[in-house]
What we know:
Layout (H helix, E strand, L loop, with lengths): L14 H14 L1 H4 L7 H8 L9 E5 L5 H7 L9 E6 L2 H10 L4 E4 L5 H7 L5 E6 L8 H14 E12 L6 H13 L2 E4 L10 E7 L1
Parallel strand pairs: 1-2, 1-4, 2-3, 4-5
Antiparallel strand pairs: 5-7, 6-7
Helix pairs in contact: 3-4, 7-8
S-adenosylmethionine binds next to helix 2, helix 4 and strand 2.
Amino acid sequence: MTDTKPLPVPRAGSALGDSVRFVGRFLSSPTSVGAVLPSSRYLAYMMVRDLRLQRGDLVVEYGPGTGPMTQALAKLDLVHRGIDYLGIELDPEFHATLSHRFPDLAFHLGSVADVVKILDERGHRQARAIISGLPFASLPTSIQAAVVRGTYRVLADDGEFRTFQYVHAYPLPAARRFRRLMAKRFHGYVRSVPVLRNVPPAYVLSYTK
Ligand SMILES: C[S@@+](CC[C@H](N)C(=O)[O-])C[C@H]1O[C@@H](n2cnc3c(N)ncnc32)[C@H](O)[C@@H]1O
């Protein structure tokens, strides 16, 4: 993966409005929101570029927030290509915003820690791609472990899991613990160059089985 110029991915909504809403949610739930601002469209583009998706596949998004990555995924024309999408969001306000903004996509209000049950109850098969905006480093260890376990179970053998970590936080113990947990189950790992046009700059991490 390289940090090339992004395609003209439209913004998910009013950038200022989303930022204000995001700061408000951060102040009320700092550890689960885990970031002060939504991801930039440049980071969102890097999270979805070159995903190998085909008709009948399922793509799952963890913690879509105000939807910057959802918007980048929507630009891949999922619905018309016959690709299923499911976003799982814990925060009811974000969930309501997403459902209003992307009426063609499905959003589940709940925790990714229950991803196996959620997919099962909705009759979904395994996911070809999982795009995660979860703030792993600030989540409780038990939730981290449940998400890693569940992700391994619901990801297809030839599927790909992508997440991001902020460059400044990458060496911190909580971020390293998450990568250690992932390394126990996932054998393929690629880290992108830093995406500088994001506040703060971030790496995209890609995992395969
Ligand atoms: C750092 S924000 C990222 C939002 C968006 N993906 C972006 O990049 O701007 C983390 C998001 O994960 C959600 N979240 C946190 N814990 C979660 C959980 N256990 N299950 C589902 N969503 C969760 C938060 O509510 C928030 O929307």
